[in-house]
Amino acid sequence: MQELQGEKVDIIPWSNDTANFIVNALAPAEVSKVLMDEEKNKTEVVVPDDQLSLAIGRRGQNVKLASQLTGWEIDIMTETEESERRQKETRERTELFKLALDVDDVIAHLLVAEGYGTVEDVSETAVEDLATVEGFDEDIATELQRRAREFIEKRDAELASRLEALGVSEEVRTAEGLTLAMLVALGDKGVKSLDDLADLASDELREIVGESAMDNDTANAIIMKAREHWFADEAAPVAEAAKA
User: How far apart, in Å, are the Cα atoms of 102 and each of 111, 134, 152?
Assistant: First the structure.
C-alpha cells in the first residue's frame, strides 16, 4: 500500500470452485446462495437483506470488481427478493399448467415441484421420466404429454396466423434466436422489417420479448446479425470503386 501511495488493496483467496471464488470475491459481504447459469456465464447471488449494500458497494464497485475477477456476470438480490420471485414463478407456472394441460392444482403443483417450467418441458420429456413424478404413473404421464403437444400445436398455429396478419417480413421471421411468441411481440410493437430489428438497442429488444426470455448477449447477437446487410451495402460501392 505504501508503494502505491496509499492505494487500497483487496486480497481475494483463489478457489478452483467458481461458486466459492465468487463468494470470496464478494467478501466481506455474507452470501446465502449462489445460483449459476453456465450456458450464459451468469450467476445470481443471494445475500441477507442487511448485506445488500455491502455486497454491491458504492456505485456498484464491489460487484463490478467481483465480476471482473471471476469473469462471470453477477446479479445480487436479497433473500426476500429471491423468495418473492420463487413464489411468483411457482404461481405463474402452476397457472400455466392448469390452463395448458387442463389439470387441477395438485398435478400442476407436482410438475412445478419437480422442476418443470414450461409446457415444452412436459412435451419433450420421456414418458418413463415423467412417470417418476410422485403420484404419476405411465398412463398419467402419457396423457399429460399428449395434452402438452396438442396445446403447443394449437398455440403455434395461432401465433403463426397472427404473425402473417401483422406483416412481419420473412427476414425477421427467419432470424436465429427468435421464437414465434417473440416474433408476434415484435410485430405488435411495429418491428416488422430487418431494418426495424436492426434499429433496436439490446435493452429495447429484451423489453419487447421479455427480459427473462433473453439475455443481453443474445439480444446483441440478434441485432448485430440484423445489421450485417447495412455493412454489406456500405462496402459494395467501395468494392466497385476498387475494381474500377
Answer: 13, 19, 13
Give the pLDDT of residue 237.
55
In CATH terms, the fold of domain 18-77 is: GMP Synthetase; Chain A, domain 3 (3.30.300)
| Chain segment 98-152, per-residue pLDDT in tens | 999 999 999 999 999 999 999 999 999 999 999 999 889 999 999 999 999 999 9
Q: How many CB atoms lie within 10 A of CB 30?
A: 13
Gap between the Cα atoms of 210 and 70, Å rounded: 27
Burial of 93 (0-12, 13-18, 19+ CB in 10 A): buried
**Of 47, 46, 41, which is closest to residue 73 (Cα–Cα)?**
41
What pLDDT shows up at residue 233?
A: 60
Task: Measure the CA–CA gap between 155 and 100, rounded to whole angstroms.
Answer: 10
- Is residue 211 predicted with pLDDT exceeding 90? no
Top CATH class of 102-161 equals mainly alpha
Which of these CATH numbers, 2.40.50, 1.10.287, 1.10.150, 3.40.50, describes 168-229?
Answer: 1.10.150
Q: What is the identity of the amino acid at 180?
A: L
Farthest-apart Cα atoms in the chain, separation: 76
